[in-house]
Automatic annotation (TrEMBL):
CDD domains (alphabetical): CE4_SmPgdA_like
Entry-linked SUPFAM superfamilies: Glycoside hydrolase/deacetylase
Database matches in PROSITE patterns: NODB
The protein's name: Polysaccharide deacetylase
Domain NodB homology: 106-295
InterPro entries: Glyco_hydro/deAcase_b/a-brl, NODB_dom, Polysacc_deacetylase_ArnD
PANTHER family documented for this protein: GLYCOSYL TRANSFERASE-RELATED, POLYSACCHARIDE DEACETYLASE YHEN-RELATED
Signal peptide coordinates: none
Organism: Anaeromassilibacillus senegalensis
């Protein structure tokens, strides 16, 4: 009250000045409003473009926040799907629909996660011996030998794909932004090292795991919007389970595969998976005997994915 009286009594000139400034400010805001409104719209990308394979409900609240920092350049030509303010405007690929799965042909897909490692080249040598092609879901290893192994995977005709750069579940599944940042880094490494702009990926721990209960749907939705195709597996060799014996790896891979016309078999290719490497010849021979041929996963391969729980 005291201050108001003071203003009215002695400073009417000042009041006029303040009012003028306020008026100018209001005019300025009105002029700028359409711009700020447009920017707000840009910050809320529509995530309604979903792939037909995955039913996603209730995930639209988890809109990705746009962070414009540390965006790796992964391609030379921007894709038309990119939204303004997209932190990864080049991280798009053409969405490919899966092929009709109408043949009775038995095809096995050997998939190796968590490489490259010291055991990558020895594994490639084994696969060469059988002229079998496999799919490698890679992590962020940047040593000279690891880079060479990545190039060899491609040179010898195998499929190369993103697994995760850090493979740190807590970090990558914290949010859509966190997942994208990790994915972009790995995608970029593969592209720079091998020249392959891979459309394929596999989630660390699988698409549904105990670390991404709150974020899986939103992450999948965003990755679908960007056109990328992920694969889980329907046969687990068990080679990542503590205490698994060589015999068990063989039995899981062979016996469980027989239940599927198109088994997608999970193996690992870290430096400690020597037992896996040693079982691969016998596994290949057993599956060939069962009438399977081997192929690499492609963007149009009929998907093998975990079901997203209704309540996730
Ligand atoms: Zn993994």
């Amino acid at each position: 009250m005291k201050r108001a009286k003071h203003v009215r009594r002695g400073n009417s000139g000042k009041v006029v000045s303040i009012l003028t400034i306020l008026l100018l400010f209001a005019l300025f805001s009105a002029t700028c409003f359409p711009l700020s409104h447009a920017l707000q719209k840009v910050d809320s990308p529509s995530l309604s473009t979903l792939a037909g394979q995955v039913a996603i409900e209730g995930a639209l609240s988890a809109k990705p926040k746009i962070v414009v920092e540390s965006a790796p350049v992964v391609k030379t030509t921007p894709q038309k799907q990119a939204l303004p303010n997209d932190p990864y405007p080049l991280l798009y690929t053409e969405k490919i629909s899966p092929k009709e799965d109408d043949s009775n042909e038995k095809i096995a897909y050997l998939t190796f996660d968590d490489g490259p490692s010291d055991l990558t080249i020895p594994l490639l040598d084994v696969l060469d011996r059988y002229q079998v092609k496999a799919t490698f879901f890679l992590v962020g290893k940047t040593g000279e030998e690891d880079r060479k192994a990545m190039r060899e995977i491609v040179k010898r005709g195998h499929a190369i794909a993103v697994h995760s750069y850090s493979h740190d579940y807590r970090e990558i599944y914290a949010s859509v932004d966190a997942y994208l940042a990790d994915f972009a880094k790995m995608h970029d490494l593969i592209l720079k090292e091998t020249g392959v702009d891979t459309p394929l990926y596999r989630f660390a721990g699988g698409s549904i795991n105990s670390y991404n209960r709150d974020t899986a749907k939103a992450i999948i939705e965003e990755m679908n919007r960007r056109g990328y195709t992920y694969f889980d597996w329907n046969v687990d060799s068990g080679d990542a389970t503590r205490g698994t014996t060589a015999q068990q790896i063989y039995q899981h891979a062979v016996n469980d595969s027989k239940q599927f016309r198109r088994p997608v078999i999970l193996f690992h290719n870290t430096g400690t998976k020597k037992m896996t490497l040693e079982q691969i010849p016998a596994i290949i021979e057993a599956l060939q005997k069962e009438g399977y041929r081997f192929d690499v996963l492609k963007a149009d391969t009929p998907p093998v994915r975990f079901r997203i729980p209704e309540t996730a």
